[in-house]
Amino acid sequence: MSNDPNALEITDLRAGYDASDVLLGMSLQVGSNERVGLFGPNGHGKTTLLNTISRVIRPRAGSVRFMGDTIDALAPHKIVARGLIQVPQGNRLFPDMQIMETLELAAFTPHARKELKANLDYVLELFPRLAERRQQQCKTLSGGERQMLSIGVGLMCAPRMLMLDEPTLGLSPKLKDELAQAIAEISARGIPLLLVEQDIAFILSLVDRMYLVDHGEITREIRRGTEVDHQEIMDMYFGSGGA
Ligand SMILES: Nc1ncnc2c1ncn2[C@@H]1O[C@H](COP(=O)(O)OP(=O)(O)OP(=O)(O)O)[C@@H](O)[C@H]1O
């Protein structure tokens, strides 16, 4: 085991699609018990960053260390097996599958299989709405229930770290609060988090630190407790005419 204090360490990561460069050299760290946010407008590379960390996209340069080990040469399923789990944006669930089937299927690595019962109990306790609807097909779930199930799928993979891509997209304030509580509870179990969000108030309520992402680069880091000028952030990202 290494003495690396960081769960995740990214150095000068570059990636893109065909002729377009999207990540222009991103470096960041997530501590071993930390909640870190990524905030920035649409299309500036946050999802590309998570996909590159998970190796769904091959980086053009740079390096990723997870729990002290370089994971640059690993295939995506090996990264999942190590416990670095991405909960993707949007509805990536199989529409005809039931909640329980979906959760059980997610525990596909040997380690996750061993923890299946405990993790299933945890997910159903964390999200009682899922427990009440356990035989319901994914296509019939509400937006909030789908987000809960997506996080549940991530938890069934036995995560040592979670990367959540806009988990509250399109949800009502009440549902956002419910999800914030669940995410805080997951973090309190000692699981480090990298959280992508567009809702500045939501992200600031949850994270220890936040990186601002602008056109494929990290332009600033804001620590919890730092006085944040919301208008300044909005101006910087959306122009001084307002968002
Ligand atoms: N599969 C793809 N092929 C080509 N270009 C892509 C692909 N996926 C994303 N892009 C482009 O890469 C850029 C960054 O997109 P990305 O989804 O990473 O941004 P984002 O900051 O996560 O925004 P959002 O919150 O809207 O998802 C955008 O210009 C997008 O059009």
TrEMBL record:
It holds the Pfam family ABC_tran. GO terms for biological process: L-amino acid transport. This is ABC transporter domain-containing protein. InterPro entries: AAA+_ATPase, ABC_transporter-like_ATP-bd, ABC_transporter-like_CS, BCAA_Transport_ATP-bd_LivF, P-loop_NTPase. Belongs to the ABC transporter superfamily. Gene3D superfamilies: P-loop containing nucleotide triphosphate hydrolases. Residues 8-240 form the ABC transporter domain. The keyword Transport applies. Keywords: Amino-acid transport, ATP-binding, Nucleotide-binding, Transport. SMART domains: AAA (SM00382). Involved in beta-(1-->2)glucan export. Transmembrane domains (TMD) form a pore in the inner membrane and the ATP-binding domain (NBD) is responsible for energy generation. GO terms for molecular function: ATP binding; ATP hydrolysis activity; branched-chain amino acid transmembrane transporter activity. The keyword Zinc does not apply.
